[in-house]
């Protein structure tokens, strides 16, 4: 039975709480396509059913795009789940770093002993070649500067064509860890697209304070495909090394692409040629260290 710490999943309850992407009518489709199947509660009991064939040693809840007017409310919800069910092990909260109230929000989030970092998807363009994204804003950078003193890291989810902005941020704040989400989002699987993605990701890999999660690499219109995803997995590991890479399920979102076991069996197949120690780092030990999860 595969042992792992899942570094990226979401607990959510759109029947009891407000998530714009789940509750609002006419919200744009997810990058995987129709996401109506996700408009239901996904709670620890559901997660335990999905992980029944896995030796789950810990998990990381990542903010689920909860009501942006009440980002701290999500962590109160997660705190109640941890008290009732013992999951997740730790969490990443939502914070809008460019907002005037960012300082207070970050302090409130840091006060939860299980919160390890924050995520805000910075303003991005839909395609390469557009104007600068949100990581160049002065107000955003002021908010970002508050993370390290509070013991928080930054979870970055942005299209690869904005990673050059993140390189500058990583270099300017070398004591603040960045964890890239979803392998840098290699959505264009053409040869040209993958080359551009790899080049952008290499700039981040050169920054020693950057780690990366191999997660959320499904494709719209397809089930999780080993032949399509093996290259992504191995190139990320080649760039960052086994000591800065981790695996995550992105459940329940990636249930649109495959079962939980199928995704992790795919990851395991991708790294089958690595040593047992290297596989242990990728599936467990790096996550334990980076997210400070007790053994």
* Distance between the first and last residues' Cα: 18 Å
> How many helices in DSSP terms?
10
- Cα gyration radius (Å): 18 Å
The CATH architecture assignment turns out to be Alpha-Beta Barrel
Number of domains: 1
CATH topology: TIM Barrel
Q: Return residue spans where pLDDT drops below 50 for at least 5 consecutive residues.
A: none
Question: Shape, please?
Answer: globular
What is the level 1 CATH name?
A: Alpha Beta
Order of helices and strands: EHHEHEHEHEHEHEHEHH
Q: What proportion of the residues form beta strands (DSSP E)?
A: 5-15%
| Number of β-strand runs | 8
Identify the quaternary structure here.
single chain
Outline the biggest β-sheet. 8 strands, parallel
What characteristics describe this protein?
TIM Barrel, 295 residues, 14% strand, 8-stranded parallel beta sheet
In brief:
With 295 residues, the chain is an alpha/beta fold. It is built from 10 helices and 8 strands. Belongs to the metallo-dependent hydrolases superfamily.
Structural write-up:
The chain has 295 residues and is α/β, with parallel strands linked by helices. The chain has a single domain (3-290), classed as TIM Barrel (Alpha-Beta Barrel). Helices cover 37% and strands 14% of the residues. The chain is built from 10 helices and 8 strands. An 8-stranded parallel β-sheet has the order 1-2-3-4-5-6-7-8. It is globular. Belongs to the metallo-dependent hydrolases superfamily.
